[in-house]
Design a protein that fits this description.
CATH class: Alpha Beta
Shape: globular
Radius of gyration: 17 Å
Order of helices and strands: HHHEHEHHHEHEHEHEE
Helix content: 40-55%
Number of strands: 7
Distance between the termini: 35 Å
Number of domains: 1
Largest sheet: 7 strands, mixed
Strand order of the largest sheet: 3-2-1-4-5-7-6
Strand content: 5-15%
CATH topology: Rossmann fold
């Protein structure tokens, strides 16, 4: 078996481990009614052992973006903003290691206290859903502690000095974060303000040829990530086309 086949086999296996899909299928966001998906999602991810709630296709997108920036010698580190239990960043670290980017840092940015409360006047739909029993009781505000995330990195053999943790709200930690350049910028903050805070603080640090991945662009009603992304791209005059990963996640190349 050649090196490329071994790398693919390893990363495919890791994706199944992180998403807890070695022995069962992942919940399908685009099949069935909303209530049945919410139940399946909650049981599989939030009450189960998954370290990432990203569908495997989104982890494959991380892999492909990492491979392309390494192949094209695009300078910079990788970051995910909004990490839950850390699975996406663990996968990012593994992809860098196996494809020759071990010297690059993975930045892990999160409050590690769950999602922030949106401004009810500016974003009433987001605020209403934040206060709902679904977010507070079923989803538990997607909270995972810094200690839990570090333990997950260690359990998968990915905790090292090339993994840096940034704890706090994006508006507070990212403008002053000691990041020089980025090659992959992955956003998973859901809300308008969270998305805008990340793009405002970090987009100018993204190298030409680097990738922006927006996890929640296709979500509707409860999160306005799309609005922030579109507003930022319009303000910055970004013409790079949005490419779909799946029905909710998009990316573009700078």
């Amino acid at each position: 078996m050649d090196r490329e086949s071994i790398a693919t086999l390893y990363l495919d296996l890791l994706a199944k481990v992180l998403t807890a899909t070695l022995y069962e299928d992942e919940p399908d966001r685009d099949e069935g009614d909303g209530a049945s998906f919410v139940t399946a999602f909650t049981l599989h991810y939030l009450r189960g052992n998954a370290v990432s709630m990203q569908p495997k296709v989104r982890l494959e997108n991380i892999r492909d973006c990492v491979r392309r920036v390494l192949a094209d010698a695009v300078p910079g580190d990788c970051i995910e903003t909004g990490v839950w239990r850390g699975g996406g960043c663990i996968y990012m670290r593994a992809a860098l290691n196996i494809y020759g980017g071990a010297e690059r840092t993975v930045w892990v940015a999160d409050s590690f206290e769950g999602m922030p409360k949106p401004d009810s006047e500016r974003h009433p739909e987001e605020a209403a859903f934040f206060e709902s029993p679904m977010m507070q009781q079923m989803y538990r505000r997607f909270e995972a502690s810094l200690e839990e995330v570090k333990e997950n990195f260690a359990a998968h053999g990915m905790l090292s000095d090339k993994v840096r943790f940034l704890k706090g709200w994006f508006k507070d930690i990212l403008p002053s974060a000691p990041i020089d350049r980025l090659a992959v910028l992955r956003l998973d903050g859901d809300y308008y303000d969270s998305t805008m805070d990340v793009l405002t603080a970090l987009y100018d640090k993204l190298s030409p040829g680097g990738f922006v991945i927006v996890d929640d662009y296709g979500e509707e009603g409860w999160a306005n990530c799309r609005g922030a992304t579109d507003d930022f791209r319009r303000t910055k005059g970004i013409a790079s086309p949005l490419q779909r990963v799946d029905s909710k996640c998009v990316f573009w190349r700078k």
